[in-house]
Amino acid sequence: AKAEGRNRYQFYSQDMAERSNQRLHLEQGLRRAIDGGQLTLHFQPQVTLPDRQIVGVEALVRWQHPELGMIPPARFIPIAEESGVIDALGRWVLEHACLEMAGLKDGLGGQLHLAVNVSAREFMRSDFIDALRETLARTGFPAAALELEITESTLQTIDRSLEILGELKKLGIAVSIDDFGTGYSSLSVLRNLPIDRIKIDRSFIHDLQHNPDGAAIVKAMVALAESLRMDIIVEGIETAEQAVILTRMGCAGGQGYLFSRPIPVADLIKLLATPDGD
Ligand code: C2E
Ligand code: CA
Ligand code: CA
Ligand code: CA
């Protein structure tokens, strides 16, 4: 049993060494990727329900690695966060998202609304607001059309969060809670913080038709958002049936493969130019 234990230990430590090697490799690669033109942005439309007008987009980063091919953000964002590379990556995303979207109009000729994901570490940085202000000035993107998506865990330090949210509000930048319902934050956090919008996580949506509990939770979240006067958007809508159910529940905003996958800006421009057939 002793020998077996030793082998197992060796097995684990080899495995761990390999994984930390891989992480290091990705981390170094990511630093190069930012300056080396390997990152791109895709934009996923956000639409009104039930009429499916495109009112905004969410920017989602893509990494085309020269040897490993396309690496999904779920794989490299956590590494970027732990290593601190997220600071440079976040600045790159914001700058390029604003530049690419600066000229795009919504159906009524206004600036199309842009949502950008921001990690807790970026959000809490003391120079975050200044950097944001500079980026907006440099790119000419209007603050009023920008929205930052943060998760519940980002708001753990209430005092600091209040301070930053206050600054953002002064600038006219909106804030939404991403993946809402998956975190552990108490609802009082929402009541005490100036949040504009909640994004209901797609885990509540995928079996909406067959899961009365999931449906009840979504209904409760819609009622909550309403009473707190926050907008709501549902992510991960894949079927027309889900869209119908969600519309009936009073959800006015949606995002998901049913409407469009995340796409390059050139495809977005085509999509915006296409009459929607109804
Ligand atoms: P997220 O912010 O929750 O983004 C939504 C994810 O769901 C995206 O995955 C999107 O492609 C996917 N999605 C959209 N509609 C559907 C649908 O109908 N069905 C299904 N199954 N999936 C759908 P993606 O692009 O792989 O991004 C994964 C996560 O990586 C994001 O989750 C976000 O947390 C993070 N991420 C992506 N870009 C950035 C970024 O620029 N900065 C930061 N900090 N995080 C980012
Ligand atoms: Ca998001
Ligand atoms: Ca989300
Ligand atoms: Ca998510």
UniProtKB/TrEMBL annotation:
Stretches assigned to the EAL domain: 23-276
Protein name (record): Two-component system response regulator
Gene source species: Parazoarcus communis SWub3 = DSM 12120
